[in-house]
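QUALITY CONTROL LOG
STEP: pairwise intake check
CHECKER ROLE: data steward
CRITERIA: each record must contain a sequence immediately followed by its structure tokens, with no blank fields

ENTRY 1 OF 2
RESULT FIELD BELOW
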Amino acid sequence: GAGSRRLMPASAALDEHEVVVGVCGAGKTTLVRRLLGLGYPARVCAQEHSHVPSLFRRRGRPQALIYLHASLPVVCRRLGVNWTEQVLAEQWQRLSLAREECDFFLDTDPLTIPQVLHATECYLQAHAVCKRGL
């Protein structure tokens, strides 16, 4: 039902989830919603808004840490903003530990939403990351 496709509650243990991090506009929420629709227990970690460099592992190491990258021109286009390089540089800095420790890094700049989903699902399948209840 629709309830199973909601983003996971903040209290959920991260070690049972795929956690998606990245700058604003990289496609985190869109990817998580699609992964949930396929049965993966995915969640967004809004690391770019936090000053806690290890926020992505706050409640345990996730099954998979997925890092979505996007460049300044693409972020500005996707979000309809006119940010400076400094705005994104601050987000990249906050995400640096997550980027270093990620299991899967994906540059979303040249990709469509279906391509991002496909690449991520291929990674999860190749690394035997389980869907919910399997």
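ENTRY 2 OF 2
RESULT FIELD BELOW
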Amino acid sequence: MIRIAGFQEDGALSMYPEYSWCPTAYDPRFRPWYSTAATNPKVLIAVIDVSGSMFNFDRITLARDAALALLDTLTWNDEVGFVLFNGVVRHVYPVTACTDANRILMQDWVTNKITAGGTTNFILPLEEAFTMIEDAVAANSICTKAILFLTDGVADFSEDNFVFVADKAEQNDVIMFTYALGSGT
């Protein structure tokens, strides 16, 4: 649906071209040619909360679906790794090029390893993620580095922890994205 810019009935000004995106079966954003043309090579570390509270409201399914969707947006010139955590770092998938063959292996790993249980500790998995990025950059020439942090809740995260993470992100030129999974308490 495309609408022409102008004033709406409520007096608000709409922007041109206004477009309500509602893809059904085909979404070009998930095609390799789109991803490759739109970005440069990158290394992404998905840090995913798999603590016991992720059972609530089926948040663990949201985490698994998000990880699988992430893999669908990457191309052969991107690298990705996973850190699953609760009170400790539970599982790590090392930084790997996202080729078609590797994508299948990572999708299987994500499907089988993302299960909930235990407490929550944010700092240990973030330390692991920064180490993975530092190792990947030392091995390759990577332009964009990012950590995607997916969690459902609050952990003991002190001001010192925040400063540590902010300093590491700045030192390594890492973009951090945080995602709150689910709703409810």
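INTAKE CHECK: passed for both entries
DESCRIPTIVE NOTE, ENTRY 2: Helices lie at 32-38, 59-73, 100-113, 123-139, 159-171.
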